[in-house]
Amino acid sequence: xxxxxxxxxxxxxxxxxxxxxxxxxxxxxxxxxxxxxxxxxxxxxxxxxxxxxxxxxxxxxxxxxxxxxxxxxxxxxxxxxxxxxxxxxxxxxxxxxxxxxxxxxxxxxxxxxxxxxxxxxxxxxxxxxxxxxxxxxxxxxxxxxxxxxxxxxxxxxxxxxxxxxxxxxxxxxxxxxxxxxxxxxxxxxxxxxxxxxxxxxxxxxxxxxxxxxxxxxxxxxxxxxxxxxxxxxxxxxxxxxxxxxxxxxxxxxxxxxxxxxxxxxxxxxxxxxxxxxxxxxxxxxxxxx
Length: 289
Known about the structure:
The chain is α+β, with helices and mostly antiparallel strands and 289 residues long. It has helices at 6-13, 126-141, 147-164, 180-191, 198-205, 209-220, 224-242, 247-253, 259-270, 274-281; strands spanning 21-30, 46-60, 63-68, 71-75, 81-99, 119-121, 168-170.
C-alpha cells in the first residue's frame, strides 16, 4: 500500500516526523588474531551492526549473543558493546551510525526498548537489509555529493529502521530454549561465575561431554569452555569500565579465585592488563566502533 499522506505516516512513527540522520556506514572485517576491540559506547549515536559473513560473539551490557550472517544487532546510544571471540576466518559486517533518531515511545537515539532483545534475525528478509546497507554505503562513499544525495541517505536510513521492526527478535540468549545447543549456552550464561567444567555441564544437563562439545561447536563455532572464558572476560570488562572495584574483586565476581591467573588470562584475551584496560576506557573511546 502506498501512502499519499507520507508526512502524516512519518509522524506516527517518528516524533514530529523528524527523519533520522545516518552519520556513517562502514564495511568492516574483524578477526581477533589481528586486533581486539574494547567495550565502548556512544553518548549521542545509536548503531546498527549487520553481519554479512562469518560468525562472532557480540556483547551488549550484561547480555551476550553468538551471531552469524543474516543477524542484525541494535545498540542504543550510550550502551556499552564489544565484538569479541569469532570463529575461524573472522566476521564481516556493516557498521551504521545513526543520530537524530526519534522513534515514537522511545528516548532519543534509541533503536529499541532498553529491555528488548538487541539481536534480530534477518531470515528470508536479510537480502533486503543487506541491499539497504549496500545502497547507503555507496551513497555515503560517493565523491560528488549534494543535498539530494544527503536526502536519499536520510530517506533510506529511515526506511531501513522501519523495515527492521518487521524482523524476528531473538531473546534466546536470555532464556533457555528447547534447542540443545542454545540450552547449553543459556546454562553457561546463567552460571558462568561457577567453577564449570565439561563434566559438570554433562551432569547438570544430562548430556555426554562429547555431545556437549560437538553440538555447541557445531552451532557456535567454538568450544563451550572457550565461550565460558570469553563470557567471564567480557563481564570483567564491563565491571572495569563501570565500577571502581579492585582487580582481585573483579576476578572473584566473574568466577576466578586466583587473581594472578585472571590477570594473565585477561591480558592474553584483551591485549592489556585489567589495570591498563581500565585506564584506557576511562579516556574518550567514542571513535571506536
